[in-house]
Design brief:
Elements lengths: L9 H16 L16 H10 L5 H14 L3 H6 L2 H8 L6 H16 L7 H5 L6 H12 L8 H10 L9 H15 L4 H14 L18 H4 L16 E12 L2 E6 L10 E2 L2 E3 L6 H11 L4 E13 L3 E12 L9 E4 L11 H9 L8 H8 L1
Parallel strand pairs: 1-6
Antiparallel strand pairs: 1-2, 1-4, 2-3, 2-7, 5-6
The protein binds a DNA duplex (11 and 11 nucleotides) through helix 2, helix 3, helix 6, helix 8 and helix 9.
Function: Adenine glycosylase active on G-A mispairs. MutY also corrects error-prone DNA synthesis past GO lesions which are due to the oxidatively damaged form of guanine: 7,8-dihydro-8-oxoguanine (8-oxo-dGTP).
InterPro entries: A/G_AdeGlyc_MutY (IPR005760), DNA_glycosylase (IPR011257), HhH-GPD_domain (IPR003265), HhH_base_excis_C (IPR023170), HhH_motif (IPR000445), MIG/MutY (IPR044298), MutY_C (IPR029119), NUDIX_hydrolase-like_dom_sf (IPR015797)
GO molecular function, one term: purine-specific mismatch base pair DNA N-glycosylase activity
Length: about 375
DNA sequence: AACACGGGGTA
DNA sequence: TACCCAGTGTT
């Protein structure tokens, strides 16, 4: 990396390093992808880092365990189908991560025979940006490479009293330069993880717990009483509204699903065949029309369930209507029928899973059998 | 530089 | 509700 001139006096730099590593040694969090010093498994470190992109630790842990159970090695992941990978990613969000993970696994084996051991080679792989390349290089391979995520950016902005929006290029460059200086020396992986843990558990966004902070004496923002103001919150646009109508078509006790196109929102996932409803349009009519255009002639009945979800950039509303078809298109393509017991293992978004679970018993695939059993 | 891309935790 | 989270890729 090209770095600006040093910004940390060397005495201050060693004090920070010493305090951070001592704090780490005094009791860091135990997490399933963390190993004793020098015993890191690069494959596991990589999987965890990708899952942790924009996702909090507590949310990741169960998905990580489930994923490693199915794909314990790089080879297992490289041999899996995209559908299998997405199934184990189902509910975690940002599904492009799962697709890129599989693509990178295949490329790693083809070109490097394993997880490559340099920042440059890592950064060239799908799903690796500056953060993940630095994290894997330092944690898995002990290389002196910086990584700046949201937590580290906040910690460093306070430590160095760095003004300006963290996402602005000039601020980013300063924070990365700080991180690069700080990581130089023994135990780079643990130094980086200590910075991240500090941001997650002590140097919080709204209420930094400076009394418990190992580097509070070195903190420039605290010295100026500005630790609560830095870094400035970033402006966000209001989520746009997305109204979707979908059809509950049951055939032989199985539910009709359609695969979304790769890329874009929920790319590659299965969902109830549906359509966006434009503002002012009538949902059942819009649904029937859109499905007919895709070769699926559905008679749309009454509403069965509705769920709403707020994503970062969308306010998503899904409404399910009973649907009946005279004849299904030939199998293959993007349609499939799924039995109720298959649903837990399918690649569905959290919203679609919630919608299916919200269906009244009369609308669900198992309904007919259950009614007969009661007779 | 701005936007798309999920879902859940926290105050 | 608002903000953010172990970010990356596209336009």
């Amino acid at each position: 990396m090209v770095l600006p001139m040093p910004v940390l006096p060397s005495a201050r730099r060693s004090a920070l390093r010493r305090r951070l590593l001592a704090w780490w040694d005094a009791g860091h969090r135990e997490l399933p992808w963390r190993f004793p010093t020098g015993e890191a498994d690069p494959y596991r470190v990589w999987i965890s880092e990708v899952m942790l992109q924009q996702t909090q630790v507590a949310a990741v842990v169960p998905y990580y365990l489930r994923f490693l159970e199915r794909f314990p090695t790089l080879e297992a992941l490289a041999e899996a189908s995209e559908d299998e990978v997405l199934a184990r990613w189902s509910g975690l969000g940002y599904y492009a991560r799962g697709r890129r993970l599989r693509a990178a696994a295949r490329e790693m084996l083809a070109r490097h025979g394993g997880v490559p051991r340099s920042r440059e080679a890592l950064a060239a792989l799908p799903g690796f940006g500056p953060y993940t390349a630095g994290a894997v290089a330092s944690i898995a391979f002990g290389l002196e490479e910086p990584c700046v995520d949201g937590n580290v950016a906040r910690v460093l902005a306070r430590l160095g009293c760095v003004e300006g929006a963290p996402e602005a290029p000039a601020t980013r460059a300063r924070l990365w330069a700080l991180a690069a200086e700080l990581v130089r020396g023994p135990r780079p992986g643990e130094l980086n993880q200590a910075l991240m843990d500090l941001g997650a558990t002590v140097c919080g966004k709204a209420a930094p717990r400076c009394a418990r902070c190992p580097v509070a004496p070195c903190c420039a923002a605290r010295a100026r009483g500005r630790e609560r103001e830095l870094p400035p919150a970033r402006a966000r646009r209001a989520p746009r509204r997305l109204e979707v109508a979908c059809a509950v078509v049951v055939q032989g006790g199985r539910l009709l699903l359609e695969r979304r196109p790769p890329g874009g929102l929920f790319g590659g996932l299965w969902e109830l065949p549906g359509a966006e409803v434009a503002p002012g349009a009538t949902a059942p009519a819009a649904l029937a029309e859109a499905l007919a255009l895709r070769g699926l002639r559905v008679r749309v009945g009454k509403e069965l369930a509705r769920v709403e979800r707020v994503l970062t950039h969308r306010r998503l509303a899904l409404t399910a209507f009973r649907g009946s078809v005279a004849r299904l298109p030939p199998p293959g393509g993007q349609l499939r029928l799924a039995a109720p017991e298959e649903l837990p293992a399918l690649a569905l978004s959290a919203a679609t899973r919630a919608l299916v679970e919200a269906l009244p018993a009369s609308g669900r695939p198992a309904a007919r059998r259950r009614i007969r059993e009661e007779e």
